[in-house]
TrEMBL record:
Pfam families: CheW. The lineage of its organism: Bacteria, Bacillati, Bacillota, Clostridia, Eubacteriales. This is Chemotaxis protein CheW. GO terms for cellular component: cytosol. Residues 21-161 form the CheW-like domain.
Amino acid sequence: MENENFETVNVAVQADNDEMKGKYLTFWTDGQLFGVPITDVVQIVGMQEITQIPEYPYYAKGIINLRGAIVPLIDVRLRLGKPEAEYNDRTCIIVANVHDIYFGFIVDEVEEVTDISDDQISPPPKLNSDTVNQYLTGVAHKGDKLVLTINTAKILGEDEFDALIQDAQ
């Protein structure tokens, strides 16, 4: 995948959407296992030099230049309210397509691509009678593990998404 450009990869993924239904990329953040639909994932890259951007939200670490594409980075730990941790050799960036814009999500460690059927996913727990976590889409039972499934498009609020897009352009 290293030599392919994003558009080529994205077209290939969209062509395989039916085949990819029910497949999730799972990753660890602060000891919790999360999953995102594989159809949202463009590629996984190792950590690299990050250019910080003034006045970005605290969880937006900056941008990277990935083969000529400017990709804003979100530290998933910080976005989910977890404590900051030093990056290591297991830390990586999941590049995802969010509304036809590429974002990098910094995670502690990628686990695997796995099949999770709809009947393995329970609705997310309600925080109170009116509120449900805005980006948590469900809790999947995968063997003896629980996988918190998240919506990559909603991990950023609408205002934050617009602000990050303007800064990255």
